[in-house]
Each structure stands twice: as structure tokens, then as C-alpha cells.
Amino acid sequence: MSRTPPDEALIAGEWRRGAGAPNVTVDPATGAPLATVHAVSVEEVAEAARAAASAAADPRWRALLPHQRARLLVRIAELIDAEAEQLAALQTADTGKALTETRALVASAAGTFRYTAAALETAEEALTPARGAYVTMSVYEPIGVVGAINPWNSPIASDAQKLAPALAGGNAVLLKPAEWTPLVSLALGRLVTRALDELALPRALLAVLPGPGRIVGDALVRDSRVGKVTFTGGTSTGRTLAHAAAEKLMPLSLELGGKSPTIVRADADVEQALAGVMFGVFSSSGQSCIAGSRLFVARELYEDFVGELVRRTQKLRVGPGTDPATQVAPLVHHRHRDAVAGYVDLARSEGARVLCGGAVPDGPQYADGAYYLPTVLDGLANTARTCQEEIFGPVLVALPFDDEDDLVAQANDSVYGLACGIWTRDHRAAWRLARRIDAGTVWINTYKQFSISTPFGGMKDSGLGREKGRDGIRAHQRQKALYWGTAESPLPWAT
What we know:
Elements: E1 9-11, E2 14-16, E3 22-26, E4 33-38, H1 42-57, H2 59-62, H3 66-82, H4 84-95, H5 99-122, E5 126-128, E6 134-142, E7 145-149, H6 155-168, E8 172-176, H7 183-198, E9 206-208, H8 213-222, E10 228-232, H9 235-248, E11 252-255, E12 261-264, H10 270-282, E13 294-298, H11 299-313, H12 334-349, E14 353-356, E15 375-378, H13 385-388, E16 395-401, H14 404-412, E17 416-417, E18 419-423, H15 427-436, E19 441-444, E20 459-460, E21 463-464, H16 471-474, E22 477-485
Parallel strand pairs: 7-8, 7-10, 8-9, 10-11, 12-13, 12-18, 13-16, 15-16, 18-19
Antiparallel strand pairs: 1-2, 3-4, 5-6, 6-22, 11-21, 14-15, 17-20
Helix pairs in contact: 1-8, 3-5, 3-7, 4-5, 4-7, 5-6
């Protein structure tokens, strides 16, 4: 891979500069420009969709058996592994994330392609129980063209979670990376193109189409050749896409926002809970849909626990993602940093106490970057906007609870239902709470741990559908029923 940041789009199997407006990507740690990436135009989205539909129907791809498609996924994983350090460095430069995290994300992407290849090779179709003189079976076929729209917070891992099952299902994919962070998606596109070339498969099976969502994403979801869209991002954008998909009667999967509760019962292992709560909200600088941003602590433990949490939070090391000592890296963009700061100002106006953080760090090393101190707030009711709206930054709101019913009522008093963390030594209480909390994922005595084999998604305003797991491939296919007649007379009234 070239050390020069990629700046061309992949349109209809060809790498070229998009015809749309230029966008200068910026290193969040320094404010320095990284690359100028031109957006694709609406016409180029249509061109890519036409080419993708043709590639999806090409016998070189359409006729491949599952184990042959799996070979492509394995090869992509091998190429990711071979370029792992360069991909991690590029993602750190583009998103500001710590290198330790971006290395893990790159490894996760490779693992996703490998897992999906294995699931594809072992996927079975069903011979269903017949109710007459016929044999019945259920088979799966490609949708054709899948649109994949991803956020800026974890590009390469999110890209893999959409590309791998869509390709495994026999589809072509139009990938739209986030406008702020397109570079690692473009670099991944280069690796996929290389794998396609090596296996003599159509290049137009993947397009990488940078640009603003209001133009590129809108054109993608409305194109008649796109048969499904999978989106990760904000809830308001998800609703807009859902309306457009409904006009086409097109399936859509949405992984949206969260305001996840993390719960510390009085019987919790305090050391374990402190470490887990901090990691759950401050890793990734809080820029995670599953961040444990609402902390509920048993009232009898509240004062001591929150006091120690604040002391430890104040010691977290804030710095650039390239520094191995960094624990809280810069936010993705100065505009996003300002939005996070605006929420803390809102919290103050709502009556919150800022127990630590709540400001941009002092010092010349922070002057040009999009830094914000890890922040702990309390003194708010769960109904406050700061407790209800997704901040997507290193901001934690602490609240006490009195008993289990009070806890469940507060935790579920949210439009979101994405994730939850529970810290307790009582396995019966953990089971009870896990079943009562409205969340698609519940962690017990751990947080932010993932397996590609385990389905992921949300409830309520946190989304529709599930990603990952063996069924992730089937979510990118159409199911068809076949009936094989075995009687001499094919119809009841035939003679």
C-alpha cells in the first residue's frame, strides 16, 4: 500500500477523482490537512450502481459456489493482515483514535472476513416438512446491489461488518464512507480491488463513493438498482433513509444511536466496576454508539464510588493517538468537539455539577487538536436532556438508584435501547436485570466486548435488524421456496 493517503473514488471498477466538491480531511490531533478527497456526483452514484448491477449478474460472480466466494473473503483478510500497520496508522491519522485501538479494529476487520468465509462455507439451506405429495425446500439468492453507509467513528471495522456478509451473499456493494473519515475505507477498497483482480472477478462488485450523506447517501438509497441499504449512524438520518426505503419497499437495516446505562449494584466488585465503567465511556473518547454514558449506582455506594471514579478519571492521559501512553485521544473533528462542549454547557444550565473535566485541556500540545477532557457530571434527573440525548463524547452522567424497580424504570426511560452494562456478584440479579432492561446487548461484569459470531443491534430508536452472526449473510439474500411435485397427477383435479 502506498504511504500517500488515498484520494480517488472507486466508481464502476475504476479509480478516479470524483466529480463533486473537494473535502480536505484533517488530522484531529494536530489540525493539519491529510488529503483532499473529491466527492462523487449524483451521476457517478448512478454509474456505479449500473456497473454494480451488471457485476452482480456477471456469470463469473453469480455462478460461484459458496466456497468459491469464501475464497475471496479469505484473500481480503490476508491482504488486510499484510497491510495492518499501515491501515492502523492511516485510521489514527484520519480519526484521531489511539493506535492501540486502530490496530485492534484492523484485526477485527480481518477476522470478520475470515469468520464470514467460514460461515458461508458451512451455511445450509432447509428441506422443509412437506404437507402433501411434493418435496419442499427453502433456498437463498443474492439481492443484487447492496448500499452500505458507514459512520466516522470506526471505519474499517464497520466497513468489514457490511462488506463481508454482503459479498458472501453474492451481491455487489456500494460503500459510502463518512465524509470526515474516508481514507481507510478507500484504502480497504484498494485491497478488495486487488483481491478481485487476482481471482478474475468483476471490479465493479465494489464501489467506494465518498461525499456528503445528503447528496451521495440520498442518491444511493433512492437508486432503483439498489435492493437493500444497511446504515450505521445517527437516528435522525436513519429515519430519513427509512422513509426513502419505504417508498421503494426496500429492506433496510439500521444501527443507530444509544444512551446506554451501566449499572453498579451494591454487591459489585468495586475495582472491576470502576475499571469497566471508565473503559465503557472513555475509550474511543466516548465516540461509540454503545458508550456507557449513563451511570446508575446503588445509593448506598454512590458517594464513595463516584468520588473514586472522579479521582481516577482526572488521571487519564489525554494526548495524540500516536502516543502509546494516550488513554483519551482527540475527538474526530473540531466541529464535533464543539458540539460535545455544547452539551456540557447545556448540562450546566440544567443544574449539573461538573465533577471533573468539562473543558478543553490546557497546554500548547493541545492547542491545534480537537481535544476534550474526560468529564463526569452529576446532580441531574434522568429526565434532563443531558441524560436523554446522545452526546457521543467523553461525558458520563452519574445517577443514584434506590431499588431494582427504580433502576429499571430509569434505565428504560430512554428512546434508545442499544446496550447495557451490569456490575454485580449476584448472578440471579444479573439475569433478572438483563431480561428487564430494554437493550439489544447486555454485558455482565464486562463492557464493550464483541464477537463477530454474536448478533448485534438495538431496540426502539437504536435501530432495526441485526448485524454479525451466521444470519448476517442471510440478511443480504432473498429467500425462495421451491416445491417439487411427486404425485402422478400434479393437481388435485387433474385426471
